[in-house]
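Moderator note: this is an archived Q&A kept for reference. The question asked for a predicted structure of one protein chain; the sequence and the answer are reproduced below.
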Amino acid sequence: MKTKSGKFVAAISMIGLLASLSAPATAADNSADTPEIRAAVQNATTRSDHEAIAKYYEDAASQMQAKVKEQKELLEQYQNKSYLYGRRAQDLQSHTEALIRDYERNVATDIQEAALHRQMASKLDDNHATSGTQSPAL
């Protein structure tokens, strides 16, 4: 009897540990929020700077999209074969659904950032084109 309750307490402790570690892990998965990229965003002045930042965010979005796909496949496994996971099946499904939501939010944010920087690059190009065609005032 003591071994069953000991195993149960150990399992609950492990689930609690994993749950507490999962929130920082998902925040760390958004690699687009690094000091380097923040500095690049603040120092971006040319069209190529903004295009490089946009490309970075697009790459980050595609990586997150791959994670979304992976988690959706895992969720499908948990739903279709829940009998393999016993009592943990619902917890695993809920956790995976939360990860999917978080990753999809990161994808949307990265896509918005990429679009913003593409727009800035376009405006810089437009400004450069209009300023180059003006004749100096005499």
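Archived answer notes: The CA atoms of residues 76 and 93 lie 9 Å apart.
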